[in-house]
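Side project, low priority. Logging it here so it doesn't get lost.
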Amino acid sequence: MDKTTFRSVFKGKSFISLFAAVALLSATAVVAQSASAQQSGSDPAFTLTILHNNDGESKLVPDEESGFPGIARFVTALKNLQTASAGATITSLCSAGEASWECMETDTTTDGVITLTSGDNFLASKEFDISVNRNEADGSRYYDAIALSGLYDALALGNHDFDFGPDVTATFINGFDPAVPFLSANIDYSEEPSLVAAAEAGRLAKSTVVEYGDVSVGVIGAVTPQLRNISSPRNVVVSDVAEAVNAEAARLSSDGVNIIILVSHLQSVNEDLELVEQLSGIDIAIAGGGDELLSNDDSTCLPDEQPFGNYPMSRNNADGKAAYVITAPGGYRCIGQLTVGFDSDGDVIGVAGRSVAVALDETPDAAVQSAVVEPLQAELSELESNVIGQSEVGLNGVRASVRTTETNVGNLMADATLWNAKRLAESYGAPVAQVAVQNGGGIRNDSVIPAGDITMSDTFDMAPFSNFIVVLEVPRETLHAMLEQAIDGLPSANGQFAQISGMNIVINPSAEAREINRDGDCSLTGNEGSRLISATLADGTEIVKDGAVVPGDPVVLATINFLANGGDCYPLSDIEAISLGITYQASLAQYISEGLGGQITAEDYPTDGDGRIVQIASETTPPTSPQGESRTG
């Protein structure tokens, strides 16, 4: 199909936006694009510009080499767009019909500007660890909260905002000055006192309403139903997204609010595209968690990357009206800018917008630079200069590797877990661990750390989350199911893939995978999985042989509390776990400096691993004996 260029000219504020609709929004889009002549139409009754971003994830310090401008440059860019958007004149708006985009000329002025973000407002990292340590020492606000204060009308909560547990979530929320509402309609936090207190203070809610004269704009939040499986929300209960959002939209509508925006963190813009078809009263959905690039001819965000779809995308909502879906790449690299014209009933009559890059040479905001970036850089320098060991070999923590196959970083981290679990067992009254498992999703450096000095900073890069080492006694049948769950995503890269210590396993990735309700309670929905051929402890004890469990005593497993609590759908949450009072980052650092005497050798940790995980093809004869030795610490 032909591509039609729609122009939206903002006068008097020194910028021009050329809105381009592409031939196909996405493989599943319902709106086909075709050339459409400009048409005259009446001016909208109310015009709103939405500025948005998502997945900032504590990328506060600039990293020009990797394309991250840092928070101070982002703040400057956002404030400039807020100023430029206020009162700008719009000369054209376009709407998605059933077969084409239709544009109308208009001469309207923006009546309001709203700024929103759709979750993952911080991420476990060196930067955030520094914030946590400062807060624990003297009650200081987190650097992320300082940097983001005063920018937004509302913020959605994402899965990473719960990674350190609800108390840290509450501390982050309470650190905003002035206070701003954090939103999620589909969570019940009544069993978490710190979040209840935040709600009572007006800082946490299902939705909020922003007034523009006599026009009310409602904003509803939502978070992924997978929250319990991928984060650490403790007693926070997550309910169905569509049901919760529809209920809140109906409540707002009954209060006379007829313009409603959804800010959600569902992990993918595709989730929002599917969701809006089930929603009534939703006009705009801002997606988070997927990092997708939406773009048109006037967009400047990541110009060398292939866009996922057009900015904006469109679906018909449950009322049969076009709803527009937007998102932006994270890390403070891009800002979405969507102007929406509404009629007197609050229905969308047209949109115009673009995805705007935050330039690497943007002038940093002076206040944020001095209050956040500079002190962080000083503290990061101390971590980077703290050498704790030497490695003879590059350490492979590339995401695609640690989530699909054995690597030396995976082995190193699993060995550290097992070594510390054995060392600390007596002190904590725990049984002595026999095996250890580390999920690939918890290994975050996504790079090969070169041979040479290994610093404390490197350990934070590899192990940034607030995961604590725990020990639990696992029945052999459960261990079998856990390992099947760990490998069920192959050959694709999945965070649940297990890096192991203290045992060897043989797997067939092309055999039938375990089938579970991944978006719900992780219950078995079909095949139990037949990919695990054998699992053998380091002392030669067979746990699984020829795909069947060998009867015997439970296996003492050391792992992280995220997995022990059922994260990544590991079937461990019903087993009592004993926490050993050490994070997996501290465990890794101590193992390198003390357990290995500061020396990571090529013999012990070859780049591709030492053969403790063997993957075979269907046509080969399945080996049943362990291949290579597993380092048990």
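Brief comment: The chain has two domains: 48-89+115-341+354-373, 387-615.
Revisit when time allows.
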